[in-house]
Amino acid sequence: FGQLYEPIVWEEQLVLSKLHAPFPGASSIGMLYEIDIDVRDTDRSIPFTYETHHTITRVRDQTAIDRHNKGYISMYNVDSLVELKVRVISAEGVVKEMPKESFKYIENFEDHGPFMIYAVEGLTPGSEIEVLYKIKTMDLYFGRNYFQFDYPIQEARFSIVSPATYKLNAKGYNGFETIS
Predict the structure, then answer these.
(1) Is the alpha carbon torsion for 99, 100, 101, 103 positive or negative?
(2) Which of 91, 113, 129, 131 is deepest in the core (most CB within 10 A)?
(3) pTM
């Protein structure tokens, strides 16, 4: 079935996200968590995909800051890292983008394979961190994305866009619909 597709956008003018529920006791709140998988057909027999991940997370205390002041992107089976952006917006509305020096590729991170890691500076209670990255992979036929967290997520989206010649199935658990 088809739905109205809205691609992920990196807003140039960032403002703090509106909190729709208080989430008492939550140290971190996922204001937005979205994944976009775009399957592209090529002249080759194997298609490739662009997979875009976009998150906005509010930190409320030092525990959340310690948890979110670094990030890890698995580069296993990744053909290329197309885009990587990270920024922080303070509770006062000051935006700070992380410089290229904050990102580092490690061939075998703690015996878990290749990773792109990054450091985040400027997090204070009440601030938000926004991360957007896009990877290109040649692996289409199997994969998984987890929407399971130990902190609340206010809004989550998952979309798959593919040519009509491909039949893709997705299995949802714990309230997510199964689509095909």
Answers:
(1) positive
(2) 129
(3) 0.88
